[in-house]
Amino acid sequence: MKLSQIISPVNVLSSPLCDPEITDIIYDSRKVTQGTAFVALKGYAADGHKYAKSAVEKGAAALIISDDLDFEVPKDVAVVKTDDTRLALALMSVEFFGRPAEELITIAITGTKGKTTTTAMIAEIFEQAGIKTGTIGTLGVVYGGETYKTDNTTPESYEIQKSMRDMINAGCKAMVIEASSIGLKHSRLAGTTFDVGIFTNFSDDHMSGKARRREH
Question: Of all helices (H) and strands (E), which one includes residue 150?
């Protein structure tokens, strides 16, 4: 898929000078291979911009950045500058996997407690109605009798979009996801339209002690 198609919904501040074919989207520089687009994410412990040069050396065809780079990028490597690379990753992933949410009944569940139980209940209702369903949440990505572990309740946007495409390929017609507050804050569900949104509850322990002190 051409880079121009993948970045079409992204707020591009600086357009690339070339339009390479992209084989995959990567946000971990250790996993970069020839022809991939590397998205430099800013995390709590690391800044992906520091690994942009390594990504180029490993064959990245494009760099998606929000900060200026401290090295000269080869002319055959496309550089896309945007204001929010985490949001860009979500929007790019939606395009790369062919907008899978549009092919599924999609339900997102958010709230302090009850997300996992509610997700399981809804998925079982669908299954009993003959609608093959996949879920994403605390238990991991679950569909077709298989469970694939994830690092977070609401995985990174790329994993969400890939999982939905895999569900479709496996015959699923519906997807239920636990939408954590952190997942929503970090734009992991950006670009995905849901048919139904469910709010379970909101309690004090949803916020950290530091956040509570700020509120008071």
Answer: none
